[in-house]
Inverse folding.
């Protein structure tokens, strides 16, 4: 089955990021396809490479990057939500006149149309959040 | 694939999208960002319905005034939805009753349905986005 996933909450603050990751991993391990994982609301904070969790805790951002690298999963950060919350790649940073960027490896920034497309193209769209 | 490509290739499925709005308009950003998805999503010409339940019914309340909050009053945008061909708006009867609201209090025309009918609406939808 082809799954689309939406993550609406930030890492560490809320279980949604862990649940979404565990679901995606289990689905891939069971032979299913993840069409896209779309990060919205505070979920965009899953995509900052500046995160530095304690060493004895899971590294949620790195885990996503590894999922993308190992299984070619499309990780998309909503541009509008990201701009509000200070998540940007080099292009976005330059375009908005910022002095830094922080997007983690394996993520890309794009528009809300990517979420709608995930709904259209996937057999199931799962929303993780409150 | 860009949104433009998508319209041109003519392979739209016309899926039944249901946006479920469960939170008040302010206090959290969910309502505003949900509305942004609805507006962008309208370009995809899918079969769209909006449901409002729990505190989500307050999103449609008339006479909102955000002066002093430092936030934009986005409630007029709900009135613009029909220009985007988003015309199927459902509100939960129970949620309205619990809050002492009637359709007279709302800024747009809606269909009031009970929670059993709301469950049917969700069952019938192919893509449910919950905010």
């Amino acid at each position: 089955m082809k799954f689309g996933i939406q993550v609406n909450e930030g890492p560490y603050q809320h279980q949604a990021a862990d649940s979404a990751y565990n679901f995606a991993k289990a689905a891939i391990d069971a032979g299913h396809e993840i069409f896209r994982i779309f990060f919205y609301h505070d979920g965009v904070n899953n995509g900052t490479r500046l995160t530095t969790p304690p060493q004895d805790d899971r590294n949620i951002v790195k885990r996503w990057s590894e999922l993308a690298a190992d299984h070619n999963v499309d990780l998309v950060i909503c541009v509008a939500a990201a701009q509000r919350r200070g998540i940007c790649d080099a292009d976005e940073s330059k375009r908005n006149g910022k002095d830094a960027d922080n997007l983690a490896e394996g993520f890309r920034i794009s528009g809300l149309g990517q979420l709608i497309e995930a709904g259209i193209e996937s057999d199931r769209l799962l929303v993780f959040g409150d | 694939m860009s949104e433009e490509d998508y319209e041109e290739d003519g392979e739209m499925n016309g899926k039944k999208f249901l946006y479920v709005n469960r939170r008040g308009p302010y206090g959290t950003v969910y309502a505003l960002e949900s509305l942004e998805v609805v507006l962008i999503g309208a370009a995809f010409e899918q079969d769209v319905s909006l449901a409002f339940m729990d505190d989500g019914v307050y999103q449609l309340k008339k006479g909102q005034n955000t002066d002093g909050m430092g936030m934009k009053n986005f409630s007029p945008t709900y009135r613009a939805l029909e220009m985007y061909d988003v015309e199927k708006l459902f509100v939960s009867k129970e949620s309205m009753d619990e809050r002492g609201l009637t359709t007279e209090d709302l800024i747009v025309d809606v269909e009031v349905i009970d929670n059993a009918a709301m469950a049917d609406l969700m069952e019938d939808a192919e893509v449910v986005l919950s905010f």
